[in-house]
Amino acid sequence: MADQITPMMKQYRHIKTGLAQDVILFFRLGDFYEMFFDDAKVAAPILDIALTKRNNVPMCGIPFHSVDAYLAKLIKAGKKVAICEQMEDASESKGIVRREITRIVTPGTVTEDNILESSRHNFLAGICRSENSVGLALLDLSTGLFMGEEEKGSIQLFRDLLRRFSPAECVIASEDMNDPELREILTDAFSGIINIGEDWTFEYEAARDNMVRHFGVHSLEGFGCEGRKAVVGAAGGVLYYVKEELRRQVGHIRSFSLRNSAEFLMLDEATCANLDLLPSRGQNTAMTLQGTLDVTKTAMGARMLRDWLARPLADLNKITERHDAVAALCENRSVMAGIRETLGRVRDLERLIMRIVSGSGNARDVRGACESLRNVPALKDLVGKLSSKLLVEIGLNMADLPELVDLIDRSIADEPPITIKDGGIIKQGYHSRLDDLRAAASHGRKWLAEYQASEQEKTGIKTLKVRHNRVFGYYIEISKGQLGNVPDHYNRKQTLVNAERFITPELKEYETKILDAQERAVALEYDLFMEVREAIVKETARIQETAGAIGRLDALTSLADRALALRYVRPVMTDGCAVRITGGRHPVVEQMPEAERFVPNDTELDCDGNQLIIITGPNMAGKSTYIRQVALIVIMAQMGSFVPADKAEIGLTDRVFTRVGASDDLARGRSTFMVEMQETANILNNATRKSLIVLDEIGRGTSTFDGISIAWAVAEYLHNHNEVKAKTLFATHYHELTDLALTMSGVKNYNVLVREKDDRIAFLRKIVPGGSDKSYGIQVARLAGMPHEVIERAKEILANLEEGELGESGQPKIAKHRSRRSKIDLAQMNLFSEKN
Ligand code: ADP
Ligand code: MG
């Protein structure tokens, strides 16, 4: 069969040469998809199936009905798969069956539910550079979301953008791929598949033309991106790739939105990770802010909330609108309960509509859309009881489409089968001709039963049976013992071991009627289904808008639910500089099941006397938790959430930076001191007066004195540079840094209260003014269960060191004087302090 010279192999070769090298071809052969040659060699181990050989051609195959599961494995392994179907019935075709590639699935363009995570977008990115700008277009084919961003000036900001959205795949023009800067960023910040697109598809005129034609608009004015070469190039390029190269349906992509990065609070990827905002791909959500805040009821809501978290706002009005909406929901608990209950009955409308529009949707998807839309009037009604600008808008954006719901309700069966080609989809009573055909078919079945009874009677053969199979159609079966009684007009068709099979003219006549009716009924059902589908497709835009509104409502309701359940307060937003928090808590740590009772703490940060807060205290005291909690409260406030505090005033922040010392960062596999310094450099270069910086133990990745020196110089820079002067929280176990406050007016010292009694310590988790002057390293070591002997010996050594320190110069603080210790002392000190 797989002979190289057979016509089929010729056809295979022909189809394969039309594909890019790295695309695996699923070649439909009857009930299987077969892979040949290198495709088979690559796929077999990933799919865990046998690699065989026929006529020296390596091959492997998978049954067509489980294609989704196999496809999922290849896509997860980062492969692209072209699906080639038989375009005609094998029994009806003369010669070789016509085969065509119907679609190419890639990691960035999967729409299969079993591969996608419902709570996150799966993005395919288009990237295009034009002079000083870089455009990024992001397309989620599974929902139709299509948006773009443009970074002007600093191409480095593009790195953050790429990291934040972590697309699964990207397309880029070959000339841009040769741009060393872009190439470096892609290598560093992007781990998905890179496709090289044709240059002309990214050129402004062609890309614009492609967009204009796809959306059926006169210009890109309405999307706010007319003349924006980089972003239009990226969008047009990505659209071309999906439509032309991958041959995918794109009818559900109905709009494009240009996001303006100035409207959002910037969070780089390191910050998202350090603060555990979102789980990374495949990771559990429990220990993240998303896990704490997400009690959404729908997939749309979950994706929306995730977007809000990754991109909090930086626009006072918009933030206030969200807070107003959350407040309105909180004040009307019964309305909110009603909304949540109703949302519980809404399915993933965005992905349902995508499947229906792209032609892969079945009657269950149509039913699902109907059952979801059915809840819209109730949602509108409930939302209408609340007075908040955003909620009113959401209500207006929801279309209840009663005619469509009614149409689907009348036409599509309540529990239709998966396939749309075997009937059983359309309800009784919807279409009179269909009902007639069905009646004819079922009447025929009744006739058969009667025929069997009457033939039994006439022939006296009690065991005579009327049966059906695919080869003979209907026939009469009579067992061997009774063959003597078979009437002459029975026509023998087949002899079995125990029985013989006969047909009669009467039986054949009826068979034609039954089968005819049945076949016509099934064909009619299919046509009727297509009509209903078309009616839905016509409403794509309104259904998508409704789905978006439901997502926003769900996200807001989730925030309101959390606000009530977890005792959050509404933050007061200002365009000033100060961040003042009373009784602030860490939203995730306070929820940990086996945690100690969480101790709330206050915060006072501004651009003057409280610009740089140094928090000292021993390891395990609670420094990291405290500084992260402040950043999280700011982020929550700006995403529209209430915050875990008794009271909070938040000055609008443009960017949150975090830097976590190397040894705290091991879990992320980025332990090198170099990375730490790069990230610190990034902060110093990009922070503004409106930024919030969280520095946790920076300088830890090197020797103590190096570390203290770098930490000190960084703090000085942040404090003294007028363009920077960002609000900063600086946690360190180098208590030497508390001396910074002596000379710098914006620096305040705080420490985490520790109770010391009989050489033992207890952590009180309270942040109090003043610096701590001890490291309590030995006490922490004791808590950790170090052997008694080691603890005692360490105390001896410490005493020696401290004596030496004072004995030599009389001054205990290292920052003021250089080289007051002997070299040996330094070395010992290093050894010891590392473990501090
Ligand atoms: P540090 O950074 O000072 O070494 P961490 O912030 O890592 O300390 O906190 C150590 C542990 O103390 C954390 O695991 C956390 O569970 C607990 N903790 C921190 N702050 C508080 C608090 N305010 N209330 C209760 N437990 C806390
Ligand atoms: Mg820490």
Q: What report would you give on this structure?
A:
- By secondary structure, the chain is α/β, with parallel strands linked by helices.
- Helix content is 44%, strand content 19%.
- Strand 7 (124-130) and strand 8 form a beta hairpin.
- Helix 4 (156-165) packs parallel to helix 6 (180-189), helix 14 (349-358) packs antiparallel against helix 21 (540-565) and helix 19 runs antiparallel to helix 20.
- It starts with 6 loop residues before the first helix and ends with a helix.
- The model is unreliable at 805-836 (pLDDT under 50).
- The chain binds adenosine-5'-diphosphate and magnesium ion (MG).
- Residues 623-624, 664, 696 line the site of magnesium ion (MG).
Give me some keywords for this one:
836 residues, alpha/beta, 7-stranded mixed β-sheet, 6-stranded mixed β-sheet, 27 strands, 19% strand, elongated, disordered C terminus, binds adenosine-5'-diphosphate, binds magnesium ion
Brief summary:
Helix content is 44%, strand content 19%. It is built from 28 helices and 27 strands.
Question: Which SSEs are present, and which pair or pack?
Answer:
Blueprint (H helix, E strand, L loop, with lengths): L6 H11 L5 E7 L2 E5 H11 L4 E3 L2 E7 L3 H10 L3 E7 L12 E7 L18 E7 L2 E8 L4 E7 L4 H10 L3 E5 H4 L2 H10 L3 E5 L6 H12 L13 H17 L11 E3 L6 E2 L1 H6 L14 H5 L5 H12 L5 H16 L1 H11 L5 H10 L4 H11 L2 H8 L5 H9 L4 H10 L20 H28 L5 E5 L3 E7 L11 E5 L3 E5 L1 H34 L1 H26 L6 E3 L4 E6 L16 E5 L6 E5 L6 H17 L7 E5 L3 E6 L12 H14 L4 E6 L7 H17 L6 E6 L7 H4 L3 E11 L2 E10 L7 H7 L4 H22 L13 H12 L2
Parallel strand pairs: 1-5, 7-10, 9-12, 10-11, 13-23, 18-22, 21-25, 21-26, 23-24, 24-25
Antiparallel strand pairs: 1-2, 2-4, 3-4, 5-6, 7-8, 8-9, 14-15, 15-17, 16-17, 19-20, 19-22, 26-27
Helix pairs in contact: 4-6, 7-8, 11-21, 12-21, 13-16, 13-21, 14-15, 14-21, 15-18, 16-17, 17-21, 18-20, 19-20, 26-27
The chain binds adenosine-5'-diphosphate and magnesium ion.
